[in-house]
Automatic annotation (TrEMBL):
Protein known as: Transport permease protein
Family: Belongs to the ABC-2 integral membrane protein family.
Keywords, alphabetical: Antibiotic resistance, Cell membrane, Membrane, Transmembrane, Transmembrane helix, Transport
PROSITE patterns: ABC_TM2
InterPro entries tied to this protein: ABC2_TM (IPR013525), ABC2_TM_bact-type (IPR047817), ABC_2_transport (IPR000412), Nod_factor_ABC_transporter (IPR051784)
Chief place where the protein resides: membrane
Length: 278
């Protein structure tokens, strides 16, 4: 196939883009998502690296800090405090998955070939994001299982563990969409990695190693204005307080803001590429 035939800008499909919704689009979503999952399995850096990094921090933090910090933590179990931090890290490091998959497809020309099909454009972004959600769910579940081996015992019982994994996936989906938008807009893995580069340092300016009420001075003020503090506190509340005493709404609100911002950014990036063909 010639270069001209592969160029969206020079093809009839660019002048008559696929409909936003069609039976072909929904039928293609499953195979495209499965292909993205296979790409993750063939790329250990997408599948294993975020999990390994978070598991490493979980073991190190629990092993080195539990003896000095347990007295300041609810129930005396430091793993209850540090697991949500590690899951938060997993959410935005694993969130780069969708962007990296898109960058790979753009570089190989596969994305351009899909552009010529009657499949709606949104499926080309949704498929890698859904694959990222599946991968993130597995990573969060594995990390929670490791925490159980280290002594995790949520006050609200096993349902709190399901809620914790769900909260991680909700938050991570917003990061997946942000990374997908950057990948689609720039075609650069470096730009996609900026999602992690921005949020990883930010996570250390919240109640990183102790509950929020143990902070004072300038760090307490930094945690107050840090957008990652509400979701982190909500995730910790799932483990350390009964259902009746939890206050998840601020954390859920931040997660939804990130989700909407990511969806809007992905929509704008997709619209730009549709109009310009580049």
């Amino acid at each position: 196939m010639s270069t001209t035939a592969l160029s969206p800008a020079l093809s009839p499909a660019a002048d008559h883009p696929a409909p936003r919704t069609s039976p072909a689009s929904f039928a293609a979503l499953g195979p495209l998502t499965a292909r993205s999952l296979r790409a993750c399995l063939r790329t250990p850096s997408l599948l294993v690296s975020p999990l390994f990094m978070s598991a490493f921090f979980l073991v190190i933090y629990e092993g080195q800090l539990s003896s000095v910090a347990a007295t300041a933590t609810p129930g005396g179990r430091y793993v209850d405090v540090v697991l949500p931090l590690c899951l938060l890290t997993t959410a935005f490091t694993g969130g780069a998955t969708a962007g990296q998959l898109l960058v790979t497809d753009l570089g190989s020309g596969y994305h351009a070939r899909l552009w010529l099909t009657p499949v709606a454009r949104w499926t080309l972004v949704t498929a890698p994001v859904l694959a990222g959600v599946v991968v993130l769910t597995g990573q969060a579940t594995a990390l929670t299982a490791l925490a159980l081996l280290l002594g995790l015992s949520p006050v609200s019982g096993p349902p709190a563990l399901l809620a914790l994994v769900g909260a991680t996936v909700l938050l991570g989906t917003g990061f997946l969409l942000l990374a997908a938008a950057l990948g689609l807009h720039t075609g650069s893995n470096a730009a996609v990695s900026s999602v992690t580069l921005v949020f990883f340092p930010l996570s250390f300016f919240t109640a990183t190693f102790v509950p929020r009420d143990q902070l004072d001075g300038w760090m307490a003020h930094a945690a107050d204005i840090n957008p990652l503090t509400p979701p982190l506190e909500a995730m910790r509340g799932l483990l350390t307080t009964p259902w009746s005493e939890q206050h998840p709404l601020p954390g859920v609100g931040v997660a939804l803001v990130i989700l909407v911002a990511g969806a809007l950014a992905a929509h704008l990036a997709l619209t730009r590429r549709t109009r310009t063909g580049v």
